[in-house]
Design goal:
The complex is a heterodimer of chains A (about 500) and B (about 325). Chain A contains 16 helices and 23 strands. Chain A has about 500 residues and is of the alpha+beta class. A 5-stranded mixed β-sheet of chain A has the order 13-5-4-20-21. A 4-stranded parallel β-sheet of chain A has the order 7-6-11-12, covered by helices on one side. A 4-stranded antiparallel β-sheet of chain A has the order 14-17-15-16, with helices on one face. In chain A, α11 links the parallel β6 and β7. In chain A, α2 packs across α3, α5 crosses α14 and α10 crosses α11. The longest helix of chain A is centred in the first third of the chain and has 25 residues. By secondary structure, chain B is mainly alpha-helical. The chains are: A alpha+beta (about 500), B mainly alpha (about 325).
Chain lengths: ~500, ~325
Amino acid sequence: MANQVQSSAEARAEALLSQYSSGGFYCELFEACQEKAAGAEELVRRLNAFTTGELAERAAAAERELMMLGVTFTVYTQRDRIDRTLPFDVIPRVLTGGEWDRISRGVKQRVKAINLFLADIYGEEKILRDGVVPRALIVGNENYRPIMRDIKVPFDSYVVINGTDLVRGGDGRFCVLEDNCRTPSGVSYVVENRHLMQRAFPDLVDALAIRPVSDYGQRLSRALEELAPPGVSRPRVALLSPGTYNSAYFEHVFLAREAGITLVEGQDLFVEDDKVFMRTIAGLQQVHVIYRRIDDAFLDPEVFREDSMLGVKGLVRAMAKGNVTLANAIGTGVADDKAVYAYMPRIIKYYLDEEPLIDNVTTYICGEPEGLSYTLDHLEDLVVKPVGASGGYGIVIGPHASREDLEEVRAKIKDDPANFIAQPMIELSVSPTLMEGEVGPRHVDLRPFAITGRDTWVLPGGLTRVALRKGSLVVNSSQGGGSKDTWVLD
Amino acid sequence: MTKLLSRFAECLFWLGRQIERANALARVLDVNQSYSYDAHGGRNWRMLLHLYEQEEDFRRRFGEVTPEAVLYYHLLDNGNSSSVRSSIAQARENARTLRPLISTEMWTQLNGFHRTLTDLSPTDATPRRLSRLANLIKENCQAHVGITMETLYRDEAYYFYRTGQQIERADQTTRLMWIKFHQLLPMGAEEGSAVDVSQWHALLRAAAAFQAFSRENPSNLTPEAIMGFLLFNPLFPRSLVSSVSAAAESLSCLRRDFDIIPGSLAVSQLRSFQSAILDYDMEKVNQQGLDEIIDWAQSELIKTTDLIGLSFFGLATDDF
């Protein structure tokens, strides 16, 4: 009896990661240690000074703090609005400096190609005339905006704020899973997660060479000012939010505060003489640059959805006249379309004459005959994605799907092949994660954020999303994913 | 220089008012329980329903006037838009909208205060626990004000907050006087009797003025001296004259220091209200009747609020 008590006490005092196994997947933390990355080894040593109970206790305190700080997104039910924190895992995800520099170069390359592509398809259409990308795929795309044709965008920076979703497979190589060129979100969590770690776990953070993330706001503000219409010496910049009821309102607040720009709603803006003004206590003041967090469709009832209560009447006119810059530009959604994604390696090659620094995941385009027949023949091995949807909705993971699910998606693909792509199942890398009182492997992805004014800057690290359910591959926050602090260690 | 959005100015004005109101209400309820006994040793709970002219609404929803129901109605009732819980919920919504402007500390404290109130159950607002709850509310409101004074950047935003706070304060002080006046008049307690004295004490305490008044008038606890103190003492921060002067000063600063052109009507309204108060003394009050003075003050405050709304918050674009 006495022995038993003693041994269980010993078990409790065991080093945190001593029982950890990556379950055969590529582990972000231990592979970095394999490469003798000093920072990663030191992190493991420091984590091992904790027991699971101690770590859980500190994690709970951190969670409470997020709630008090209101670092929340809002979930609406029929009766209530509930503020939830994005689940936060306290064990950081690490990247070595060298690894990160390769990613950063790859992201810059991709953003550059995407902006050249957008300038081209809304301008001379060279890539379409050369037949590199099918014309129908572009001009027939629901996110293609004819209104943008021949409109000059400062520095051709269509995608000012970009998020690139990366995953790492079993071979340790990063691939691009998806581009986010419209209004990518999540950057506030990158910065808040770091600040939280610094407050709640100074003993993990101290004296490690972690690349900083806290200058995101200044970088954003500088880029937005650079993009002001020509001739404006002191541009006034605003962030246009759908308002306090939007689930991402916290992020809009965060960005406005960090960048020192005014957070406006549609009702605060007003267009006269093709210029945009905001209603202030001193009367109307002109606005020159708008970082809009509202989809194209709701931006201007004069041009897009007439029933939009969120937008500003005349905004598109003002933009077309060159009196206001919108970030991101209208019509960037055509570049992050899942079908266009498949052409991205060819797009990079076409404009830059370079091979992609980060590969795409192999993609079968069901709209093309070979892609369709391969997909239908290998359905049980593939991940099938509807082209239009975002947020992880409608994805069918072949190896995990039931026979009925597979037959259902097969019928859908046959019915409308152009609406689907398929990709091989990727053995997503894992990172040690504290869940349900134990540390185990959970799958992660990575979304680096790039800001493009005159030049492109990439925030070191980006958002690591983690699938909290054991075995789950879905990391989207709308589907129960959480996040981790991401450390680029030198 | 980017100017303050009209929408934010309006939220700031009301944030200042809502906190001031919650604080005042908690104090009045606490004092009513602890100090305000009538000749039979009872407390007048009905009087409290006249504070915001709510007796009808209360009776419709709760029926009989009991201490429990009145306390619940004023403290925790979500259906009463003036209850402490409602005021703080509105204040928190305004703070949420204002988060790009206000300090993180302001937001965190108010968010926490709101959560605390949300978690309370009706049993937390019973007479036996009132004192504890009133203290919690007062402390949180005062912490909010302290944090605001220490952390809010003193640009236009600050002056809208301050104006709202001071206008609400003038409103609360005059309401309180009106209620007490009507309560004390018909009671028929002999002037100078123990009950009478305790009632006047209670009025001073409800206005957080007891100690200041005693220092100023150690032996002169007459109704006239108390009324005069609450209306005209320039050193007492909750007197009518202090709060109206502070509101006027605040709006003037805003226009002078920040180059704001609109709002001249609101400022001159407040300035003339202020100088009218400064011309008054208790002799004149006695001639006209306290009633009339208070009605006048209330209508001046409403006029001021309307003009502020018109000048600064209005959505019309061709007013400027």
